From TrEMBL:
It comes from Paroceanicella profunda. Residues 7-174 form the Cobalamin adenosyltransferase-like domain. This is Corrinoid adenosyltransferase. One of its GO terms (cellular component) is cytoplasm. Keywords: ATP-binding, Cobalamin biosynthesis, Cytoplasm, Nucleotide-binding, Transferase. One of its GO terms (molecular function) is ATP binding.
Amino acid sequence: MVVLNRIYTRTGDGGDTALGNGTRVAKNAARVEAYGTVDETNATLGLARLHAEGEADAALARIQNDLFDLGADLCRPDMAADARAEYPPLRVTPAQVTRLETEIDAMNAHLAPLRSFVLPGGSALAAHLHLCRTVSRRAERLCVALAAEEEVNPAAVKYLNRLSDWFFVASRVANGNGADDVLWVPGANR
């Protein structure tokens, strides 16, 4: 259980922070950059939810919760120690990745194939989902960079890869199932 009864601690005033296992690292460490950008993705998703209703909002709420799982996963290095930990760390699972894939396939089944790239825009929800897509892509790049240097749960990287695809397809659904997509016209302003 999480208990937050004090918000500021002053322990990070020198430019370092604690990971989930208590290790202190610089606030600009690759791991902190990665889970910080996952948190940023979650914040952009909160803005998108202001424009979502019904099942779309419920799906976005599930993803917001997953993003907290992902942040908890990334802030806890040393996966080999998981079995020995008093409290096993929360890890993103392949089932969470599969759920995104299933949802992408279900949404995409109702969309016409694209004949051009889609410009971010259309409805307010679609525009916000495009922002979520780009921020989640940055989070993915940071996780890939982190994984090149340190151990990272492979499902965490896969989740971010599928998530940006999910946001893209959901943006098309939010644009009248693609009818209101704003398409790129190459060289239109030459």
